[in-house]
Amino acid sequence: MTPPPSVHGDLAAPTVIAASIARERRRVLADLVALAKPRVVLMILVTTAVGYYVGLTGAPDYARLLHLLVGTLLAAGGALALNQYWEREVDARMERTRTRPLPDGRLAPLEGLLFGSVLTALGLLYTAAFVSGLALTVTLATAALYLFVYTPLKLRTPLCTLVGAVPGALPPVTGWVAAREDLGVGAWVLFGILFLWQLPHTLAIARLYRDDYARAGVRLLPVVDAEGSSTERQIVTGCLALLVVSLLPTLIGIAGPVYFVGAFFLGAAFATLGAWQALVPSTGAARRVLLASLLYLPALLALLAFDKA
Asked: What are phi and psi of 116, to 5 degrees?
């Protein structure tokens, strides 16, 4: 005998509710992951691992490397989530960021704050417990500079680009100190490469989204000097300085001749595109500089790992 329609409804209701709860949990989880910016974290992990490998003087300790990457993942993801928490109102004013979980209202600000704080704290504690005190110091400095210096400066001065390049260049230093427990010249060469790479990379993004940044009150160089050529000069200067500094690993004995030749040609190509953007500024030229920066860094790091001395 077929049960009455009401019975069908009673049986179906729990299933529908359970499915709805499952979808909501998946959405919240996806939004929390988005707060941690997985693609940026991946780049941080790669530069950290390369710093560790280049810094090795003996056989790698894979357990230590794994602990280093876990701690870095947690601390970096947490700091990036906290950055989105503090910049949620700025993000809401920009087309490219207004659909992020916090400005779009899919997550409450308190959720973002708690998630970022817990993740960062776990990362720092994990690094202290399983890697070393020196690695913890560098990781803590990275998070503190990013959150408490770079983030507020974005609304005040175009110098924020230079300041923000400091925490962005510290992950390979963390890897180096995890391998050697020192801050030798090799660590600072790696720092210099990552620091200088960020200048053309970040300024190209700022040039492409200048109007968006201006609408949000972010005082990047293309916003402050919209009609001038300061951005282009700094892109060229950054590319040329990067070309020189990228050759140092061979000169100080942590990389071989294959790396030297590859770094020279990669740097020369990158500098050529930067110079083209300076001579004939355009959206297309800025986009090519940005694409070149995204190809340059992994290629250079791969060469460095391949031809480690």
From this structure: -65, -40
